[in-house]
Design brief:
This protein is an alpha+beta fold. The chain has 6 helices and 10 strands. The protein has a single domain, classed as q2cbj1_9rhob like domain (Jelly Rolls). Helix content is 18%, strand content 23%. The strands form 3 sheets. It has a 5-stranded antiparallel β-sheet with strand order 1-8-6-10-2. A 3-stranded antiparallel β-sheet has the order 3-9-7, with no helix packed on it. The radius of gyration is 17 Å and the shape is globular.
Length: 247
Amino acid sequence: MMTEEEKFIVDLEGYLIIKNVLTASEVAEINQMIDDGDRSGPPSTWGEPFRNLIDHPTILPYLLELIGPYVRIDHDYAIFMQPETSTGGRLHGGEDGGRPGGPEGDHWYKYRDGIIRNGLCVVTYNLAPAKVGDGGFACVPGSHKSNLLINLPDDVRRFERRPHYVVQPTVDAGDVTFFTEALIHGTMPWSGQQERRALLYKYSPGHSAWSGNYYDPNQYSNLTERQRLMMIPPSIGSRPRVALDEN
């Protein structure tokens, strides 16, 4: 379950590194399947190990705690970056970057009466390490609660200048990077010794969506009932709760 310290970190910084979610053998298996595959389409369609990441038992409690019991998977994709050749992407996100339906859209963060709730959130399964200076995921910690997002200088957004408030967290293969899309974040140019491999599974509350392309369970084989439930399109009103497995 999510600890009180982890809740504090998410509220303080807008992101959280969850260590050792995938074992070394699981990382090796998934990487081998990527090597043998064609890398097209959402990773969740690439086979059972990828499909089971939708509601990974270590990650699901975080989704329920931070998004709520009606959490749904919104979309998923992979990022692959080659050493010294991938340019990355500018800092973006924050409550000014949501869509559609107003200035916030699905990018928001709220805290009230001890409960954290988020709009669109990201669970990144890191399949390769990112050491200090390697690049990849970067963010402005705490910007999910900032009132002055529009004032972020453009040269900072393009990583042409990197002030102290832009951070590139380090991760090991098997770690998960969780963050809310209300956080200003982006992808720095990659200079690691190996290919960057990251699987991004994104989740929304049951009443909202960022992607307009909803999941079709018929494209998958052997989905669990919970996975099917999490693929239901956004809806307002009666909706089944997502629950942890009972031991």
